[in-house]
Amino acid sequence: MENNLSNPSVLRPLDVAVAIRLAQTPGATFEALGRDLFMSTSTAHEAVKRLEAAQLVVRGSRRVNRLALREFLEHGVRYAFPATVAAQVQGVPTAHSGPPLAAQIVAVDPVVWPAAHGPVRGAGVTPLLARAAELPEHCPELYEALTLVDALRVGRARERTLASAALRERLRPPAAVA
């Protein structure tokens, strides 16, 4: 069996965060992506190359294929990067427990990214981005988008439907400038 780390065209979990951030900040430099996502410039560059190979980013442009990304998130992310919900831990709310779904769903079973400083105790899930628990203060827009992705990964039908609709809205192309 081939190791995904040695195959430069196989998507990694952090690539999902890179694609979403590129959709949020079209034309972002590799340096800016690295800064926003707590990674080196070269790691951001490698992620974009993998996204290009997967046709989620237009080759040579850093322009997100929004339709393909939405399709991947709605129908593939939970299979490509399945979430394992673990024991109760302190952490940062995600999935249906995080914004924006927490305003629509009363959760009796919170889901969190493990973090000692987290404000909520709940079932721990490994985030797609290693330092995701720092995103609420560092990059709130990306934090919300990744909580929606986690709702697609761990949620029931209702949570997945709400998350899909919210992501479709967030991933719409920017309005044309007149």
Which key terms come to mind for this protein?
about 180 residues, alpha+beta, two-stranded antiparallel sheet, about 45% helix, globular
Binned, the helix content reads 40-55%
Mind telling me the C-alpha Rg? 16 Å
Average pLDDT value?
92
- The domain tally reads 2
Taking the alpha carbons of the first and last residues, their distance comes to 52 Å
Series of H and E elements: HHHEEHHEEEHHH
Low-confidence stretches: none
Cα shape: globular
Q: What percentage of the residues does DSSP assign to strands (E)?
A: 5-15%
Number of DSSP-assigned strands = 5
Helix- and strand-based class?
alpha+beta
Helical stretch tally: 8
Q: Main sheet, how many strands, which sense, barrel?
A: 3 strands, mixed
Report on the structure:
The chain has 178 residues and is α+β, with helices and mostly antiparallel strands. It folds into two domains: 76 residues, Orthogonal Bundle (Arc Repressor Mutant, subunit A); 89 residues, no CATH class. It contains eight helices and five strands, in the order αααββααβββααα. The strands form two sheets. Strands 3, 4 and 5 form a three-stranded mixed sheet that branches. Strands 1-2 form a two-stranded antiparallel sheet. Strand 1 and strand 2 form a beta hairpin. The longest helix is centred in the C-terminal third of the chain and has 15 residues. It starts with 12 loop residues before the first helix and ends in an 8-residue tail after the last helix.
